[in-house]
Every structure is written in C-alpha cells, then in structure tokens.
Amino acid sequence: MPSPGRRKALLAVCAVVAFAALSAAVRYAADRETGADAGLFSQVLVSADGRTLTTPVMWTPCQEAEPRLFARETSQAVAADLKAGNTVDLTHECPSAGRLVSFTLHAPLGTRQLSEANTGKPFVPFPAARLADVGYLPPGFTATPDVPMVFGSVAGPWTPNPYNRSDTVPSWTRYYATAGRPALSITQVLPAAGAQDPASGTHAGAPMSVNGHNASLVCDTDSERALTWSDGVSTFTVVSFDPQHAALSPDELLRVADSLRNP
C-alpha cells in the first residue's frame, strides 16, 4: 500500500492528467463549435482609436448561431474574417436577421494592411473618425445595431449594399429606427463619387439642395425615398424605406441631410 506521501503525489499527477485531458476536450469542443470561415465581404468600420473593427452580418436566427468577427494580427498586417455560426436547427424557417458585430484588435490598426483572411485580398475600411456628425433625426429615431432587411436598391448604384463592400472605396451605413415608422439609413462614401442618375424603375423628384450642394431626390413608391448628394469630401445618401409604412417626407430627409457635418 503506498505511503500517504506517495498517495498525495499520485493524486496530484492524476489531477494534472485529468485537467490536461479536460482542457484538450474543451479546446476540441471549441474548435468543433467554431464554424468555418464565411468570408468577409461586407462594409468594415475601424474605430477612431484604430482598435475596433465592425461589420454587418446576416444569418437565420432559428437555424444557426450569430456569425462572429475575428482577426489574425502581425506587426505588419491584420487579416479579418467571419466565422459562420453553428447550425442549430434546420427544421424551422424564419426571416433572416442583420446586425453589427465587432472585434477588438490587440493594437491599433495604424498603417498595417487590412485584408480578408479567406482570400488574402487587401481592402480599405471606413475610418470612424471621418463619419459626419448627425445634427438632426426625426422625433423618436435612435441609432440601432440592427441592419433592417428591407433596404434594397432604391437609391441605385451609389448606395452601397452593406453586404457587398468595395475594396478600394470605403463606405459605411448607419441605421436608425423607431416604432411604427420607416427605417432610416445614412450612407457615407469616401472619396466623393458625385451624384448619379436615378436607378432603373425609379423617378427623380424636384431638384433639391443640401447645404448649397446639388442633390437628387430618388423616389420609387411612397414607401421608398432617398436623397443623395456630394459635398466634395464625401458622397451621402439618406434613405427611408419600409413596405409597411409611408417613407419619410422629402422635407424630413432634407432636414436630416442639412444637419450632417464632416468632422
């Protein structure tokens, strides 16, 4: 029979082995739970301090877990990507959801090259320090991390699809909502791209001016309305869209537009 001291030593060894086995199992489970790289093709915002990356994701909540943003860092580069969520239940159907997700880097992005990890292709994120200040929102509207699924192509090719990023022309879209009224978005593109012709199937309203700059009002139906213009620094598009509610009036869109100020 082992001595008390030897029994203690054996118990200690067993505890270490058990802990190591448990740790390995946890790591394996974590690896199994982490979905495959989904590809990062959406708009990307880098915070003013350079530490946080943010991007919109879209998924089906009743079928899978929310995707997550991650990044691999070196002293010269940052490679970012999305991990697809685990499959939860494929027997049910529900509407897709959109939401902003973020990842905090170990160090500010700075001059390091940012690329999409799955392809290695570099891209330019939108710098949050360049976002225009919003001086006015219609009563009740507040910023939301949800990306409304109703947004389509009402404003034509000059309103970037948040899930289809340009690698060389950075853009960012902010969303605002309130109960019982249409969703509102403000898209800003760098560098200024200039006004465009109305999209096919839409018609231009009366000419408008935003802080002395020519603006184009694009209307599709009473539930869709967009105002776009360039101030020589950025190109902006303010969109109001909701099939269930009347779009914001041209005067309300113009008031939002007039309140935007570049930093």
Automatic annotation (TrEMBL):
Domain of life: Bacteria
Keywords: Signal
Signal peptide positions (record): 1-29
Name under which the protein is recorded: DUF4367 domain-containing protein
UniProt source species: Streptomyces kaniharaensis
Taxonomic path: Bacteria, Bacillati, Actinomycetota, Actinomycetes, Kitasatosporales
